[in-house]
From TrEMBL:
Name of the protein in question: NAD(P)-binding domain-containing protein
Organism, as annotated: Neohortaea acidophila
Organism phylogeny: Eukaryota, Fungi, Dikarya, Ascomycota, Pezizomycotina
Domain NAD(P)-binding: 10-215
Protein family (similarity comment): Belongs to the avfA family.
InterPro entries assigned to the protein according to its UniProt record, in alphabetical order: NAD(P)-bd_dom, NAD(P)-bd_dom_sf
Length: 251
């Protein structure tokens, strides 16, 4: 049976709110983890079930208990502390995310979808993606120079999700959007081994997450997504068919 009971970390975030609204209206139950009680009413208005619990203060056991109590069938991670405070970024985007993976394994939850970022990769030891052109390389240099600790935290979390899955046995997918916009979703993107520079709206990223949840072929794949002109379901189907995993061999 497809997962219908979701635990969403970072529930009050901008992408997460779109995820909550889209999944709730499609019939999923979305348990939305937030850290401020005053955010609860707005999550309920989207159709989510708010759970007030700070990620930084939650152990693996705390998270696993939450998953068991809410009968979680799939975890979605869309939390992040931003790039302004590297210590908090490491505490949330790296350590909190890794604890949530361990918690999923402990609670017996298989499906795990991570919202990460495009161009998260080991730039020291691995080659530049061969499909990058000069503008992608320029973007990569600029982003890593500006927010290196944030990218490193994402890399550590994503590497753990993929490389340490032998002990967890999760059915993971990593969704890797490029720079996000607040524009309304258009339902069209490009996905897979794509050029990195075309912004994508948060609403469309949420639709990519929803599509991955439905599509078993995305299990075990990291999928880059950017603005484009291909309907989301088609773009994801093509990335799956072509096994276009932009993280493979780069961590
Ligand atoms: N900005 C970009 O261009 C970009 C590009 C690619 C990928 N991403 C990634 O995409 C994801 C979603 O982005 P977004 O725009 O939706 O980010 P966002 O609006 O900043 O959402 C992140 C959420 O994480 C929550 N959070 C942080 N620390 C927490 C804690 N200790 N306990 C519980 N929740 C906590 C925040 O809660 P509060 O509301 O309480 O602060 C916030 O609501 C993030 O992981 C981001 O790094 C961003």
């Amino acid at each position: 049976m497809a997962a219908s009971n979701i635990l969403l970390f970072g529930g009050s975030g901008k992408v997460a709110r779109h995820i909550t609204r889209q999944l709730a209206s499609a019939g999923y139950t979305v348990h939305s983890i937030i850290r401020k009680a005053e955010q609860s009413a707005s999550i309920e208005a989207l159709g989510g079930k708010p759970v007030v619990q700070s990620i930084e203060d939650s152990s693996v056991d705390d998270m696993a208990k939450l998953m068991k109590a809410s009968n979680t069938q799939a975890v979605i991670w869309s939390a992040g502390a931003g790039a302004g405070n590297p210590d908090r970024t490491r505490a949330v985007d790296r350590d909190g995310a890794i604890r949530s993976m361990d918690a999923a394994a402990k609670a017996g939850v298989k499906r795990y979808i991570m919202v990460s970022a495009i161009d998260v990769r080991d730039r020291e030891a691995r080659p530049v993606p061969e499909w990058y052109d000069d503008s992608d390389k320029e973007r990569s240099d600029r982003v890593w120079k500006a927010i290196g600790p944030y990218m490193d935290a994402k890399l550590a979390a994503d590497r753990s999700l993929v490389a340490e899955n032998g002990r967890r046995g999760l059915e993971w997918t990593i969704v890797r959007p490029t720079t996000l916009s607040e524009d309304a979703g258009v339902g069209k993107i490009e996905a897979g081994k794509v050029r990195t520079t075309e912004k994508i709206s948060r609403e469309d990223v949420a639709a990519v997450v929803a599509e991955c949840l439905k599509r078993d072929g995305t299990k075990g794949m990291a999928i880059d997504c950017v603005g484009g002109s291909t309907p989301i379901a088609d773009a994801i189907a093509r990335a799956v068919e072509e096994k276009a995993d932009a993280f493979e061999g780069r961590y």
